Amino acid sequence: MTAEPEPSAAEPPIPGSPVRPVFTLPKTVALVGLMGVGKTTIGRRLADHFGLPFVDADEEIEKAAGMTIADIFANYGEKGFRDGEQRVIARLLEGGPRILATGGGALTHPLTRENLKAKAITLWLKTDIKVLAKRVANRPHRPLLKDRNPIEVLKEHVKTRYPLYEIADITVDTGDQSHVKALDQVVAALHAHIMGAK
Ligand SMILES: Nc1ncnc2c1ncn2[C@@H]1O[C@H](COP(=O)(O)OP(=O)(O)OP(=O)(O)O)[C@@H](O)[C@H]1O
Ligand SMILES: O=C(O)C1=C[C@@H](O)[C@@H](O)[C@H](O)C1
Ligand SMILES: [Mg+2]
Questions:
Q1: Residue 167's domain is classified under what CATH number?
Q2: Alpha carbon separation from 70 to 65, 102, 104, 144, 178 (Å, rounded)
Q3: How does pLDDT run across 14-32, given as a tens digit for each residue?
Q4: Residue 146 counted as domain residue
Q5: Where on the phi/psi map is residue 99: left (φ > 0), alpha (ψ -120 to 50), or beta?
Q6: How many CA atoms lie within 13 A of 137 on its CB side?
Q7: Does 177 contact ligand 1 (Cβ within 6 A)?
Q8: Per the annotation, does 41 bind a ligand?
Q9: Which reaction does it catalyse (predicted)?
Q10: Single pTM value for the model
Q11: DSSP secondary structure string for all residues of 22-78
């Protein structure tokens, strides 16, 4: 599959494209949800929309550890990874508003849940696991999928993680739509949330 080009801040709006509301985000927006749902790719577009910095917890963990996520899992196990992830997310929640893409399992750590809930607007990106299974197939960098059938892993995650994602302030089901449409949904949901909170 060819990756979609990342949006550029310098690009003019496409004539006839939907006009998205522009408003200010009072705090960091943290995207949570299963692997492959779009936290990174929609997160980048969301940051571009608001002119805010984008940070990806998975990338920051790799930078901090000086190794890939697969190697962290191999050397320290999932528990070691979650502890590192907890510290990195705590650091990323300090400072001004930004868009934060979390890792799919970040909310399994109680301190990460607490911290995200206290310091960010949490937004659960959700879509059918059949769509996710197609997206994550043949991507060897996710250690939890190594030698496993993606749909089986995703079914397990629905059972164990959906109750955790339910703590999110906002839920957006993006279906199998394009990134552009998914971004519109996310911006509209944030707008409604922030207006409702005023
Ligand atoms: N709404 C969408 N429409 C089309 N493709 C999408 C959409 N969302 C994500 N994808 C594609 O699915 C793949 C995974 O997306 P992405 O890396 O953003 O997921 P993620 O939630 O960050 O996953 P992880 O938890 O593993 O980091 C990418 O190839 C991305 O382009
Ligand atoms: O769903 C998960 O537990 C994971 C998702 C990825 O974002 C990475 O954080 C890592 O591969 C673990
Ligand atoms: Mg990601």
A1: 3.40.50.300
A2: 12, 16, 14, 9, 29
A3: 565 666 767 889 999 999 9
A4: yes
A5: beta
A6: 9
A7: yes
A8: yes
A9: shikimate + ATP = 3-phosphoshikimate + ADP + H(+)
A10: 0.90
A11: ----SSEEEEE-STTSSHHHHHHHHHHHHT--EEEHHHHHHHHHTS-HHHHHHHHHH
ipTM: 0.96
Strand 28-32 and strand 120-126: the pairing is: parallel
Q: In angstroms, rounded to a whole number, what is the distance separating the alpha carbons of residues 189 and 46?
A: 12
State whether the beta carbon of 142 lies less than 6 angstroms from ligand 1: yes
Residue nearest to atom 1 of ligand 2 (CA): 104
Ligand 2 neighbours by CB, cut-off 6 Å: 35, 58, 69, 103-105, 142-144
Number of domains in the chain: 1
* Side-chain half-sphere CA neighbours of 170 within 13 A: 23
Please tell me the distance between residue 124's alpha carbon and the centre of ligand 1 in angstroms. Answer: 14
| Local structure of 186: helix, strand or coil | helix
Task: Please report, in angstroms and rounded to a whole number, the separation of the first and last CA atoms in the chain.
Answer: 43
The pLDDT tens digits of the residues spanning 76-103 come to: 999 999 999 999 999 999 988 999 999 9
Indicate whether 122 belongs to any domain.
yes
Q: What is the extent of the structural domain holding 111?
A: 28-197
Sheet with 120-126: list strands edge to edge.
54-56, 99-101, 28-32, 120-126, 170-173
Report the separation in Å between the CA atom of 127 and the middle of ligand 2, taken as the mean of its atom positions.
16
User: Is 162 within the bounds of a domain?
Assistant: yes
Tokens of 112: 């990460």
